[in-house]
Specification:
Elements (H helix, E strand, L loop, with lengths): L27 E4 L5 E3 L3 E7 L12 E7 L8 E8 L3 E5 L5 E10 L5 E3 L4 E4 L13 E3 L6 E4 L7 E8 L6 E5 L3 E4 L7 E9 L12 E4 L11 E4 L3 E8 L2 E4 L5 E12 L3 E10 L6 E7 L13 E8 L4 E6 L7 E11 L8 E15 L9 E4 L4 E5 L9 E5 L3 E2 L5 E3 L8 E8 L11 E8 L14 E3 L2 E4 L3 E2 L8 E4 L17 E5 L12 E10 L6 E9 L6 E8 L7 E7 L6 E7 L7 E10 L7 E10 L15 E3 L9 E2 L8 E4 L17 E5 L12 E5 L3 E2 L3 E12 L6 E8 L7 E7 L6 E7 L7 E10 L7 E12 L8 E2 L5 E2 L1 E4 L7 E6 L4 E7 L4 E7 L3 E3 L6 E9 L2 E9 L1
Parallel strand pairs: 2-9, 17-26, 20-26, 28-33
Antiparallel strand pairs: 1-3, 3-6, 4-5, 4-7, 7-8, 7-9, 10-11, 11-14, 12-13, 12-15, 15-16, 18-19, 18-21, 21-24, 22-23, 22-25, 25-26, 27-29, 29-30, 31-32, 32-33, 34-45, 36-39, 37-38, 38-45, 39-44, 40-43, 40-45, 41-42, 41-44, 46-57, 47-50, 48-49, 49-57, 50-56, 51-56, 52-55, 52-57, 53-54, 53-56, ...
GO molecular function, one term: hydrolase activity, hydrolyzing O-glycosyl compounds
Organism: Lacinutrix neustonica
InterPro entries: ConA-like_dom_sf (IPR013320), Cry22Aa_Ig-like (IPR032179), FN3_dom (IPR003961), FN3_sf (IPR036116), GEVED (IPR045474), Ig-like_fold (IPR013783), MAM_dom (IPR000998), MAM_domain-containing (IPR051560)
Length: 886
């Protein structure tokens, strides 16, 4: 080589050796190799023929990929470096638009390369829309690695995240292509992965549904060991646990397909039987187990049996699996050698070697299945478009301890499609005991709206004097309600006349298979618009006379135009031949619209006609409750050597007793209070005195719930004894004890433990009520039931703010919006929670926008004048508010 420096040039030279290997090549670029168009920002695949260049003395494990924009003269743009020489690589097309482009694939740190045969075009960038990627799948799953791939979202990059199933922490990788290999995984562990797309504009999609995969076990390579002559002697039978293998002569036999379980800490016998084809020779024996699964038999204690040279047949011994052995399958090796002790890895002349599989398990007698516990709620309610985040579960075993990492999660949730989805959790312990699978239900529903065109003027009355009026029969039930006057056709049931006027409605239960059993009759109310009232009460008369098993009736409410229904009042059984009164506080539903329905299900008899009359919807709340009493909350009562403000009934058979320590009867009652020293209980001893069918009633003081937005009655009960120990019920009265409604009840033995109960008193807000425990003994003395640790908690309504409600962590949640109407550009939102998801809907039901409230302000400057509904998604429930934009 010569340079041309002015004033005197210099020459220099050097030598290099190039080796041409005829067994490798040709190394050829396959794609792109025609005049295709690749849009800037998209992910494309460059392919080439490896042609043996990863071996054959070339050993190019990696390649570099370059781009030319001048028809192949220069390659200044690097697309990828040091990627695997496996024939394919995804690249992101740079924004170098033109039609003089070519690709070079070159061996890293080598001189061989190939370029594409023709120019291709780089087009304008594709607009990125951050859609949820689809087609996420796992492949090439190994002991510590797995490849995850998905379908491309044009012009997007990706966040790929993965974690062990049942844990909460994600590992997130940024990926430019449509596949990625994750490493550093734990063997025999189930993982879940999700992917989302990202656009350079800053928008991100939701994460995809999870895909799960389980890593494999580490593949171990054991040393070889074999004889070279089996003409005179060989192993003909091996007996160990469930292995009982009889086989012919071989130098080495791979019987690893045969396995048996070995329990830690238990003595196990092994028997080896030789066969001599002629002369009987002295044979030595040895057995090894790879206890720590490290691929050899050289660790301390791994030789579990040895026998000096002998002509005895068979030979036997016992060994005990140490508690330090690694659980799971591992290798067992059996060797027999002529006249000398065998070693685990050797070649010798006379004898035989056989390999088997053993499964190391927890100590013998482990027949108890592990227990799976869900993290979070068993039922999750989402709206279409929400993100489902897998919360996982934990698993514990009586022997293996925490085996959460072994949980296998199956199922998929697609929040873009309304429906009910299930996620199933399974796990087995080392002994093979399978847990009872646990299922989480995810309900994905469309955003729903309340009913419209309803009753706005109150009081509203309906006596069915002109048919069923504005009420409607359901088309999804079994039988209809009937307008009637005077008595019903059946004897011994139904009213003889209306409560008011001439007519009433009722359900005729006659004719088996038509009217009973389990026939349903639903009567739907019109829409009640309660947006302009502050308090509301729905009252009616009902007649429930007939046989004991005459079925049930419930009043149910819907705030989503009949999409879902919640029971707000119900009754079962015979109430006597008289009209009964019911009055339900609907203050919970003010500020919106609600539909009601009577849901009647017949029992096992025709003698079961139930009637309704004198329906009223009024502003205000029910009156005629008790007077005085408790007004300051929380209220607590622990019966510390006194009944406090509670009183014994004079209309029952026996009394409740204040007690400490255990009750006098054995095998029943608590041994101590759950809090403090004392509790109250009913002593069931004495045939004819304490049982059978003896009633004990204790009544609370009056609770004034006026001005309260929520109320919960909590207590602990102990119900331990014989199976037929009777019943206990918590009942409520809002008419000063004239009538009582059951809120909660239990029957039978619940075990020797205090149990906790929380009962919502929401239907009785703004009323004065009394509660009572109604205990009826069974047919045995072994039936003492106790109560302790009573407390009643409330939250108060604050003018101008929404009713506080407990959130999932137990803190109070509140929400208010102002001003209303909005005359400016900002709607202010005051809340005790951060980042609440919301959806804004116009009066026609169209979604205007959605997002999260993070600043306490919502820009409404672009909204047209009119009425709007804003829905807040709080802890799986929907809070709806309305406002007017001027």
């Amino acid at each position: 080589m010569r340079d041309n420096k002015a004033g005197g040039a210099n020459n220099n030279s050097d030598d290099m050796a190039i080796t041409v290997n005829g067994t490798a090549g040709p190394f050829v670029v396959n794609t792109p190799n025609t005049n295709v168009t690749w849009n800037a920002g998209t992910t494309q695949s460059v392919t080439w023929n490896v042609a043996g260049t990863t071996g054959n003395g070339i050993n190019a494990a990696n390649v570099d990929i370059f781009l030319s924009i001048d028809g192949g003269n220069t390659y200044p743009i690097t697309l990828a470096t040091g990627v695997a020489n496996d024939g394919s690589q995804n690249i992101v097309v740079p924004n170098n638009q033109g039609n003089q482009n070519r690709i070079m694939v070159k061996g890293s740190n080598n001189i061989f390369f190939d370029i594409s045969n023709s120019n291709f075009t780089i087009g304008t960038p594709v607009t990125c829309v951050a859609n949820v990627p689809v087609g996420l799948a796992a492949s090439n799953i190994g002991a510590s690695t797995a490849t995850l791939s998905w379908t491309a979202v044009p012009a997007a990059t990706y966040d790929l995240r993965y974690r062990k199933c049942g844990t909460t922490t994600w590992t997130t990788n940024v990926v430019t292509g449509t596949s990625s290999t994750v490493s550093g995984l734990t063997t025999l562990t189930t993982y879940e992965a999700q992917v989302r797309s990202k656009c350079s504009s800053g928008s991100n999609s939701a994460y995809s549904a999870s895909v799960s995969f389980t890593t494999t076990d580490v593949q171990l390579n054991y040393c070889t060991s074999a004889s070279s002559n089996v003409n005179d002697e060989y192993i003909s039978r091996v007996q160990l646990g469930t292995i009982n293998n009889i086989y012919g002569a071989q130098f080495y036999s791979d019987f690893t397909a045969q396995s048996t379980n070995l329990a830690k800490g238990s003595a196990t016998a092994i028997t080896i039987t030789p066969t001599w084809t002629g002369t009987v020779y002295n044979e030595a024996y040895a057995v090894w187990i790879d206890y720590n699964k490290d691929g050899d038999f050289t660790d301390a204690g791994e030789q579990v049996f040895s026998q000096a040279p002998t002509q005895a047949t068979p030979v036997s011994g016992t060994f005990t699996v140490p508690n330090t052995a690694t659980n799971g399958t591992t290798r067992l090796r059996v060797a027999m050698k002529y006249n000398a002790a065998p070693t685990s890895c050797e070649s010798f002349q006379y004898g035989e070697v056989e390999d088997y599989t053993v499964n190391i398990q927890a100590g013998a007698g482990d027949t108890t299945a592990p227990v799976i516990t869900l993290i979070g709620n068993g039922t999750i309610n989402l709206l279409v478009g929400d993100t489902y985040n897998e919360q996982g579960a934990t698993a514990t075993d009586n022997v293996d301890g925490n085996i959460t990492s072994s949980i296998v999660i199956t199922g998929n949730v697609d929040t873009s499609v309304a429906g009910t989805y299930t996620i199933t959790y399974n796990v087995s312990d080392a002994a093979g005991n399978a847990a009872t699978p646990v299922i989480r239900t995810i309900n994905v529903t469309q955003v729903s709206y309340g009913c419209t065109s309803g009753i706005t003027s109150f009081p509203y009355n309906q006596g069915f004097e002109s048919g069923i009026g504005d009420w409607t029969q359901s088309t999804t039930d079994t039988i209809d309600w009937t307008v009637n006057a005077n008595g019903t056709p059946s004897t011994g049931t139904g009213p003889s006349s209306a409560f008011e006027g001439v007519n009433y409605v009722y359900v005729e239960a006659s004719v088996q298979g038509t009217g009973y059993p389990n026939a349903r009759a639903i009567l739907n109310s019109p829409c009640f618009d309660l947006s302009a009232v502050s308090e509301a009460t729905f009252s009616f008369k009902y007649h429930m006379y007939g046989a004991t098993d005459m079925g049930s009736i419930a009043l149910e409410a819907s705030t989503d135009n009949g999409g879902t229904w919640a029971s707000i009042w119900s009754q079962t059984g015979n109430k006597g031949n008289t009209w009964q009164s019911a009055s339900i506080n609907l203050t919970t539903y003010v500020g919106g619209s609600v539909k009601l329905r009577f849901n009647r299900v017949t029992g096992s008899t025709w003698q079961a006609d139930i009637a309704i009359d004198a329906i009223k919807m009024t502003e205000g709340v029910p009156g005629n409750g008790c007077l005085g009493g408790i007004t300051s909350y929380p209220y607590t009562e622990g019966f510390e050597n006194t009944l406090g403000a509670w009183t014994q009934s004079t209309a029952d058979d026996i009394n409740w007793t204040v007690d400490a320590n255990g009750t006098p009867s054995s095998g029943t009652g608590p041994s101590s209070a759950i809090q403090g020293t004392y509790y109250i209980y009913v002593e069931a001893s004495g045939n004819g005195a304490g049982y059978p069918n003896k009633r004990a009633i204790i009544t609370s003081p009056c609770f004034d719930l006026s001005g309260k937005s929520s109320a919960n009655f909590n207590f602990s009960y102990h119900m331990y004894g014989a199976t037929n120990m009777g019943s206990i019920a918590l009942e409520v009265s809002n008419d000063n004890g004239n009538t009582w409604t059951s809120l909660w009840n239990q029957t039978g033995n619940k075990g020797n433990a205090w149990l906790n109960v929380s009962v919502s008193l929401s239907p009785y807000l703004a009323q004065s009520i009394q509660l009572r425990f109604n205990r009826v003994t069974g047919n045995t003395w072994q039936a003492d039931v106790a109560i302790d640790n009573i407390n009643l908690t409330t939250a108060s309504t604050v003018r101008g703010e929404v009713i506080p409600e407990p959130n999932e962590e137990g803190a109070l949640f509140s929400l208010s919006i102002y001003p209303n109407p909005v005359k400016g550009e900002v709607l202010y939102i005051k809340t005790t929670l951060d980042n609440i998801p919301f959806t804004l809907i116009n009066i026609t039901g169209q979604q205007v926008t959605k997002g999260k409230i993070s600043t306490g302000e919502l820009d409404v400057s672009e909204l047209e004048a009119g009425l709007y509904v804003i829905q807040f998604h709080v802890n799986g429930t929907l809070e709806t508010r309305k406002f007017v934009k001027d």
